[in-house]
From TrEMBL:
The gene is rplD. Keywords: Ribonucleoprotein, Ribosomal protein, RNA-binding, rRNA-binding. HAMAP family: Ribosomal_uL4_B. It comes from Robiginitalea biformata (strain ATCC BAA-864 / DSM 15991 / KCTC 12146 / HTCC2501). Residues 50-77 are annotated as: Disordered. The keyword Mitochondrion does not apply. Belongs to the universal ribosomal protein uL4 family. This is Large ribosomal subunit protein uL4. SUPFAM superfamilies: Ribosomal protein L4. One of its GO terms (biological process) is translation. GO terms for molecular function: rRNA binding; structural constituent of ribosome. InterPro entries: Ribosomal_uL4, Ribosomal_uL4-like, Ribosomal_uL4_dom_sf. It comes from the Bacteria.
Amino acid sequence: MKVAVLDIKGKETGRKAELADDVFKIEPNEHAIYLDVKQYLAHQRQGTHKAKERAEIAGSTRKIKKQKGTGTARAGSIKSPIFRGGGRIFGPRPKDYTQKLNKNVKRLARKSALSLKSQANAITVVEDFSFDTPKTRDFIDVLKALGLEDKKSLIVLGEQNNSVYLSSRNFKGAEVVTNTELSTYKIMNANNVVLTEGALEGIAANLNK
């Protein structure tokens, strides 16, 4: 499948880019997308939540009142969960939320996500570009020229480019990644995916290993 290559002013360069059919034109597997997005979100959780339980509370172990004759229930420790300042019953403990997912399933998920974007005409190919100095205004001008200033966009570069990356950091409507950082979640989370010419070959190579 061939698409027109645009420059950063939104005009056609006269060149065509080849989008590999085995990456951008497959039958999307929605379950694979679900599994990969679920794993990505699970990996964002730190799992450092912790509440002190009865044995971890600092406090006296003295029996706080006599066993009988008070007219109230027995109580043996001020650290009991029924008292204010006591330990928490079944409180959260540190947990590892990471999940395992087969590499082939992850590749299928990314191919499916890119194919869905392709079907929705939400993929734009631009020539490789850079800025002399990092400047948010220049980055926004590129998005405006492509008609994407009001859309959540994902810009995929062929290799790390600090001037483009730093120019995008203050703009919440777009994210810049390299082809090796591409994930199913980021593709699905964007309204439009902008691929540079340099990223196309890397994407095909990564997803067809």
